Amino acid sequence: MEDRIIEFEDAAETVLGLLGVPNLDPGRKVLNNPQVEYHFVTRIFVSVSKDYNKKEVLLSILSTFIKDIRDRNMSVQELVAEVRETLKYKYLIVMDDVWNTKAWEDLKDAFPDHNKGSRVLITTRQESVAKRVATKTDPYPWQLCSKKKLKNY
What is the pTM of this model? Predict the structure, then answer.
């Protein structure tokens, strides 16, 4: 999975996960992999969830860089511009637990493509989301990987 993130040509990749399997968090596992840590200057984990709020997701991303960002009274458009400005270097954003394609459509403009190999990894339990976001390849079936790893738990 980590190799696929590093070598993937598109900016977005999806992981279709298992519902209700404890101790398996594909987004965090990828984000904390030493090979991934070395490859991406900036790595951010952001929970999107079923009832996400675009402004809160953007604030969560920015709070990684700007500690007092929540104290500022910024519009969603200003936050999008700030995220784009902040993500200057090669980055990996993990958007965890995405429930619908609207979340991706709402947020994708905040992630600049500087042709530096940046990636957005989207984890979801919804096959429709995984297929809609995946552009050139099928969603990575985390459940296949998970079933193999379950023997170790």
Answer: 0.74
